[in-house]
User: Fold these one by one.
Assistant:
Number 1:
Amino acid sequence: MTSESDCRWTEASPDYRARLQQFACAAPLGGFALNAVRKHNQYYAEYEYEVQSTIRDMRSWDRKSQWVDICVSREKKERIWSFVWFGIVGGTKKDSMGTYMVGYIARSLDAKGCHFGDSTLKHALSVMESNQKETGRDPVIGVRIDPDNKNSMALFERNGFSDTGRDPEAEAYHRLVRFGFDES
């Protein structure tokens, strides 16, 4: 992978199901750790394994209010570089109700250091911005993040999200919010 022109964004259609089942974004910790999940004789950070499991189990989603996009290589045998599941809570893509939310975002372990987290988040923000211009929905974007996930916290904060503290609806997570789509 040498540049963004080496890949393209597409919906995670059933054509990609087998490749999504193999998608790896959770790195083994190399041994026991507190709050780790043990799978296949390896330990993983719980928040990483949750994302990987969700991606691998992805079969369907509410297309009226959600997007599930993947970034794939332009090679003959496309590789999935990153994944993002985002949408609208309390509304649809066609109305002005609800709030934008990023559900899951991940980059392949093979893409570590390639800044796919930033480009994946910017892709999602671009899609939401286009939708916001069509619908007039308030330009508010939220996300829940496990505060132990330092990489994800940093990703969203450097892209204009503010940590508002513990999420009252899911105490194990922090709620981060961004107002507007202007570059951060």
Note: The mean pLDDT is 93.
Number 2:
Amino acid sequence: MTKEELKTITESAFNDLLTQKYSSEELIKQITLLSEENQEELNPNQFAMFLFYQNIEFTKDYLDKVLEEVLLKDTVK
């Protein structure tokens, strides 16, 4: 695999996640659901925790997607 191929894979994974699971619309839906569950708006600490866990989940999903493409590219068809 070349450096350019890896760059293409990482950019594609990043863009796919940002436009799908982690789009602003999806994040707003999740924040709204959390607010409704709490029956009040998220306070600054709750909002920070939400963003923290979203960041962790995004990183996991990103790594999974990149590694799947890099390591399993020839085996999954």
Note: DSSP finds three helices and no strands in the chain.
Number 3:
Amino acid sequence: MTSSLQSGEQTLNFIGSRVVKVLAGGPDFVRLQSLDFTLEAAHPLFGKITMTLPDVGVSPLSAVRLSSSGFTETWYETSEIKFERSGNLPGPFEFQSEKPLTATATMPNWPPPPQATNPDGSPTGGVLYSVVQPPTFTGGDQRGDFTAFPPNVGQLLAP
């Protein structure tokens, strides 16, 4: 899995993985339960940035539905994010999502097709999700609102 997280003018390209369990749903959909989820990115000011499932709590169930163009996934994800540092201040700085991220994607096949990365680390291939509900993270008295989060999900190909 790779993702891009945009906040203002900055884009962070995440690379990682998401492990899901397929559960029964209905006649035209299945549910997905996130079992593991880890993404990592690098930033000159914040160092290594890691997004994972929280230690406690359960992520809401996502769903994959049959659609006229193949499959539509609605992905709900509760997460925490950790920044290695903030400028010269050593961390880690940890934040919890206030509510789940909500994103959707339509694809001809499920699971998403293979993907790779460009020389600059940005994702290529896979499936681009549209954000319905961008994440807001809080930690102590700090809060971060991200205006866009276009995750691109698929299998990372070897270089």
Note: The radius of gyration is 16 Å.
